[in-house]
Amino acid sequence: MPYRKILFVFLFSTLSIYSYAQTLAGISGLVKEDNEIIAGASIQLKGTKNGATSNERGYYEIKNVAPGTYTMVISYLGYLKQSKQVTLKANQQLDVNFSLQKDEQQLNNVAINGKTKVQQVKESGFAVNSIDTKKFANTTADLNQILNRSTGIRIREQGGLGSDFKFSINGLSGKQVKFFIDGIPLEVMGSAMSLNNIPVNLAERLEVYKGVVPVQLGADAMGGAVNVVTNQKISNYLDASHSYGSFNTNRSALTGQFVDKKTGLIVKGSGFLNSSDNNYKMKGVEILEGGTREGDQITDLNGASFVTTDARRFHDNYRSAMGQVEVGVINKKWADVLFAGFGYNEGRQDLQTGFDQNVVYGGITRKSKALNGSIRYKKDNLFTEGLSLSLFAARSKDTYTTADTLYRQYYWDGSWTTKGYTELGSVKTVANIIRPRTYALANLSYAINKQHSLNLNYTNDHLKNESYNELLVDHDEMPGRMNKQIVGLAYQQDLLDQKLVNTLFAKYYHLGLNRTKYVNNVNTLLDTTFSNYGYGLASRYKILPDLGIKASYEHAYRLQEAEEMFGDGLNIQANPDLKPERSDNLNLGAYYTLRIGKHNFYIEAAGFYRNAKDFIFPIPDEHTKFIKNANMSNVRVTGMESELRYGYANLLSFNVNVTYQNAINTTQFGKENSVNNEITYLSKIPNQPWLFGNADFSIGQDNLLGKDTRLQFNWFTQYVNWFYLTWAGLANPNGKSYVPTQYVHNASLSYSLENGKYNLSAECRNLTDNNAYDNFRQQKPGRSFALKFRYFIQ
Amino acid sequence: MNKLFCYTTKILLITFMLFSISGCEKRKEGKVEENTPYSAILCVGSWPNTAYYIAGISSLTSGTISVKGNGAEMTGKVYAQDVIQRNGFYFHANFSSGRLGKYHVDNGALVIDKEIPFTWLNWSSYTWVDENTLIIFGDGNNEARYAIIKTDKMTITTGKLNLNPIPAGMDVYSIGFAEYRAGKLYIGYGYGSTDFTKYPDNMAVYKQAAVAVVSYPAMTVNQSVTDSRTTGAGGPTVYAPVSFIDESGDLYFASDPVNAYDYQSPSVIYRIKSGTDVIDPTYYFNYSAATNNEMIPAMWYIGNGKAIVRSRVAGKSIDADHYFSIIDVKTGGFVKRLDLPADKGERMVNAVIMEDGKAFIMVNAADKDYIWQYDPLTGALTRGAEFIGGIDYILRIEKLK
């Protein structure tokens, strides 16, 4: 093509676009439900290809519309479809706002079908599992059980309801994972608040950030973070439920809100009560036969011998209770939100086993209680458009008591003999840990324009830690103190018409620790401060509206705690040379949604890499039988995870996911002064599942047994591949211990009346009564049944 | 777009296939080395993934010892290094699960011969009265206690030892060495405190080494003899020995006061001469004075009045370097430090086997770990079997037959 011709064509086309654009009109507006913004709603001009999606501020804009009369159709999953007729003149910018109404029928299936809030979180640059808890609302699950079904997460429980657990995200666990409720650290609330006892009905959504954590969650969460999001709607509702099941398990949950629309006054309340005997059957454990007995006591062990049998757990009662009330106002000139809250929680627990199930306890108990008070404030468009401020402050006091006062040895049938030391092998102890805590958070976000925004987050966590044995002293003379400050700054870009989202962030950690200790007979204040910088990036690019790729990276820290540095005065020795744990975390992933008629497919796949160094581990000291924390190990985790979902309208859904993780020990030396690589260097970390998956199938039909009813059946299978308890390549394979491959099947049937107002469900866990284990072959509950009744109005 | 979808599906399918293949990865079958005459107890990995193994050793003088695909895993049965071995049977008292067990290695696995309920004491020392009679000692409920075990059927009788009462300021007995000689048991002891708020600098110390002379099988304490120039009477010997009886029936034992938080007193070797029940007043071997204030956590008799001591460099720490030296125990003199690499191992290591008049010494060195042969006649040191693969904690070597 000759040059002149090209130039002509180019000029002409530019001109024509220019002149055409001159006459085109546009429509924009806001999408809301009452006062609440709806993001992700789809707005279409019927019969054209023009359309838009509302953004996180509920705003949408359809550009370049030719003048004429159109029917606007707005839809959002879980809400009733609306249409509106509009006429556009040339160059007109029309303002059309929508107020959507909930579609109760559709709500049950929301999580499976569409772009809900859950979906939006998933489409951020972060590697995140976002789980809508609504579809579990009629089950007896606690939050851990729901999270345990999602990719990359492995929760390893010691036993039944309320038992200790280890939460792992992509291979990192323990203190490396932090828990939040509406962005506030769970530990601020008190130690009876835990993911293993919060009932599903208290949460609306769960977000799991893997390896890379946004600055809004201001914490040193090196392995990731779980954020429990509660119902934030400004409407009246009441959700009350009770369930009863095997092992005398009772669980009640209540959450509700009252809004006085005239005054803007809101009262929110939530609470739960859990109790269980956890007296499930232990298969093939040893008890004593023979000997001289007086009641449960074996007074003479002569002639007593171990026999293998099944026995019920006898010292595993668990009870926890929580109540939280918030009162506040919304939509005032000076505050969008201002709430004052107060809460109390407590827990009581018997301890049944030690490190492995051969160590049986019968008298050790733990109890905790905590009080907290809080205040939160939020104001959007403060001073200037786009500037938002939120503040939170809380004060809490947590008391945690462990009692070990019996000189006894227990056996699996509940019988006991006297012993020269207490059950935990020490002197009689009623150990108290008292933690007064002050926590404050300030978050400032500023949308510079549609493309660029900034977020500044500051948290200050001050904690005093007292620990003492009340049988010897009545207070801790040398309490430890911690002051943790974290500043996070994030800059977000929404480029290429929101196809590309980049979040760049930096975090500054400042830690001050002190504790007084006797050094050479002088009461000396040991004082240390640390500062560290972390940074990261999260990006997402949408190749197609429903196909996106994501990448994120963070250089993250987990700071030391006062006990780890200075000891606790009871069992942990000081190690002033301790450094923070650190990790480089990388995620790569892609997702794709496909809708064909009523069929819905969703697929996501991700790869992850964690290079964690200087893990703080307690090391037992043979000399004192105490433990000391040291920066002992390094671990490198690489892995991948994938999830596939299929749904058909409101009828059925199928979900399968699988996670593979290869955690390699990169600890080069087993001792500080070693010069040769340890034999376990670059070996797979033992006693940790490396391949696991879940499959979930639901089928449900509306109006099957009457108008406004729904009958739903769910089947859920959990798979964990076998793994060695010790280092794979070492020792003769004939005598190696391992945890066998496990399949655990669960089923539930629920029936809802009056559009979900009354719900009744029956559930069976571990249907086939398979052996289930998590840690060191500690048996978990076998088959169990539960019934749940739930009343829900809004 | 369809292409892309297709591609994603393919990737996913391949991923699933990889998963299923790796998931099918089978546990391996092992090859077994039968009837090795010696064994080693080893520990690898960092906490909490530490694992203990018993590895067979076919020769002390040559070859290699590894736990790669070899050795019996101890996890789930015995999770400790304080085991007593005799004729290939291992004995272990687990105080936290309240069991006393007898075990042996068969077909590459540690096998439980018998476990009996046992809560009477937390063991620290032991002695064999005959082939079938093992007596263990320890504390429980602030008492000094014993248990006599008939090891063939694992039957036990238990009782208390009427030792001198615990002095004020102290609250537990700390049992040291134990030896059986001509119808009597000699049991070393001291006192300890459980008030660890004063750890490590100001722990309560009662400066005394005591020995109870106990008639067997009556188990009555005839007398306790004491000496206040050191603290404690060695131990716990379930980790490593600190006493022996020589050819002429003289009993020797060593103290390690730093282990009892006494940072001033010396490490001393005492003697109870054959036919007497008193600490030999003419004998006092101040090992610390002879060696720049070193302490003795372990001692082995090698014959002809000579012994090997494993001693620790001066200081408050027990996680320090150790050295092997020859002493003339009969005359109470230091002979020489053996020209071996510094031992980086733990405080308590059962490091010496005697065979055919020669001592075989296992050294946890900084780089390579060998069993060294020491010939007391010529003084020659020869390098023998090597531990390979990178094992940081070699805790015991045992002669099985």
Molecular shape of chain A: globular
Shape of chain B: globular
Quote the beta fraction of chain B.
Answer: over 45%
Radius of gyration of chain B: 24 Å
CATH fold annotation of the largest domain in chain A: Maltoporin, Chain A
What would you call the quaternary organization? heterodimer
Number of self-contained structural domains of chain A: 2
Structural class of chain B, please?
mainly beta
Terminal-residue CA separation of chain A: 68 Å
Secondary structure tally: strands of chain A: 48
* CATH uppermost class of the largest domain in chain A: Mainly Beta
- What is the SS-derived class of chain A? mainly beta
Unreliable stretches covering 5 or more consecutive residues of chain B: 1-6, 17-24
Biggest pleated-sheet summary of chain B: 5 strands, mixed
Which strand order does the major sheet of chain B show? 3-28-27-26-25
pLDDT averaged residue by residue of chain B: 90
Q: For the residues shown, what is the average pLDDT of chain A?
A: 87
Largest interface comes to:
A-B, 90 and 82 residues
Folded structure, characterized:
The complex is a heterodimer of chains A (794) and B (401). Chain A is mostly beta strands and 794 residues long. Chain A folds into two domains: 22-90, Immunoglobulin-like, CATH 2.60.40; 112-793, TonB-dependent receptor, beta-barrel domain (Maltoporin, Chain A). In chain A, 6% of the residues lie in helices and 56% in strands. Chain A has a 22-stranded antiparallel beta barrel. In chain B, the strands form seven sheets. Chain B has a five-stranded mixed beta sheet with strand order 3-28-27-26-25, with no helix packed on it. Chain B has a four-stranded antiparallel beta sheet with strand order 4-2-1-29, with no helix packed on it. The longest helix of chain B is centred in the N-terminal third of the chain and has 23 residues, at 2-24. The relative contact order of chain B is 0.12. The model of chain B is unreliable at 1-6 and 17-24 (pLDDT under 50). Chains A and B meet through strand 38, strand 39, strand 40 and strand 41 of A and helix 1, strand 4, strand 8 and strand 10 of B.
